Amino acid sequence: MGITRIGHLDINVLDINESRDYYENIMGMKVTREDKDGTLYLKCWDEWDKYSMILRPSEEATFNRIAFKVRNDSDLDDLKKKIEDYGTPTTMLPAGEIADCGRVLTMKLPSGHTFDLYAEKAFIGKDVGDLNPAPWPINGKGIKAHWLDHSLLMCQGPEAVMATTKFFEEVFDFKLTEQVTAGPDGSLQAATWLSCSSTPHDIAFVAGPEIGLHHIAFFLDGWNDILRAADVMAMNEVKMDLTPQRHGITRGETIYFFDPSGHRLETFAGLGYFVQPDMPVVTWDEDHLWRGIFYHTGQEVGAFTTAYTLAAYK
Ligand code: M3P
Ligand code: FE
After folding, report:
1. Which residue is closest in CA terms to ligand 1's atom 11?
2. Do 304 and 201 fall within a single domain?
3. Are 43 and 113 part of one and the same domain?
4. How many domains would you assign to the chain?
5. pLDDT confidence of 305, banded at 50, 70, 90?
6. Given the residues 47, 178, 253, 266, the one annotated as active site
7. What is the pLDDT of residues 113-133, one digit of tens each?
8. Is-catalytic flag, 86?
9. Residue 264: CB within 6 Å of ligand 1?
10. Has residue 1 got a pLDDT over 80?
11. Residue 147's closest CA among 175, 172, 128, 174?
12. Could you tell me the pTM of the whole model?
C-alpha cells in the first residue's frame, strides 16, 4: 500500500506572469501545461512526471492542496478502505479531474489540509533524458532546482500536529524521524518530520495559529549549490528570510526565501541522513527549538513561525 513520494503542490499566486518568470528563470523550472484560465503547471529538470507545481492566478496568495504519489492504482482502493476505517471520509475523483492525473483519492487531513493521492500522472521525462544522460542540463536556468523535495504544513496547535502525525504513521505508514516537544514533561508535539522514503522528511507539520503552508522545498546537490543559489537570488533581488545555513533538524543545508506572491520556498541540499525503519526518533526540546531550525545562529527569526501562506479555506 505504498505512498512513494511527494507529487505536487497546488497554490494560488497574485501575478501569474511574474510567477512564471520567477519559477522559470530563478527556480529553473519549465512550464509544461497552461490552461485557458491562466493556470500554470511546472516541473524541475530532474523530475520525469509532467508537473510538481500548480500555480493558479488569484487575488489571494493561498494554499489549495498537496498530493503524494502511490505505487499502483490498486493502492488507492486499499488506502480508501484503510483511511475510511480510521474514520476519515474520502472522495475518489475520476481520472482527468486533476490535470493529467489518473483517479485521485482526496481527503481532509486531521489538520484540515486537502490531501490527494494519485498513482498516475502524464510522463515527460528528465530534461537530460535517460540514454547516456548529461549530469545536469547545460541550458538550465537560475538555481536549477532538481526536484520538489518536501513541504511543511502549519497546523492549528499541537493537538492538530499530533493527530495528523498519528494519521501519517498509522494509516500511511510514514516514519516519524524528528519532533519538537513542548508542554508539561514534553508531552506535546509542537512539530514533526515524517518520511515515506529514505530521506529525513517528505512532509512536516508545525503548530501555528492558523492552517496553512509554511514552505515548499526544492532539492539541490550540496553546499556549493546552496551558495550559488543564494548568489542567483541576490542578483535577482529575491527576498530571503534566511541566508545559507545548516538545519539542526534533518541536517539539511538550506536557504529560506520568498516567491513574488510571498509563498516561502526553501532550497534543501544534502542527504541529511539515511532513514532506516528502525532509526530512533530524534527529539528537540522547546529550549533547543531555534538551534534545531537554524543550527549556526540558534536564534529566533521573528517572522519565521508567524508569517506564512494561509489555506484557501478554513
Ligand atoms: C525544515 C527542514 C520549522 C522547521 C523547519 C525545518 C519551520 O524546513 O527542512 O528541516 O520549524
Ligand atoms: Fe524544510
Report:
1. 293
2. yes
3. yes
4. 2
5. confident
6. 266
7. 999 999 999 999 999 999 999
8. no
9. no
10. no
11. 128
12. 0.97
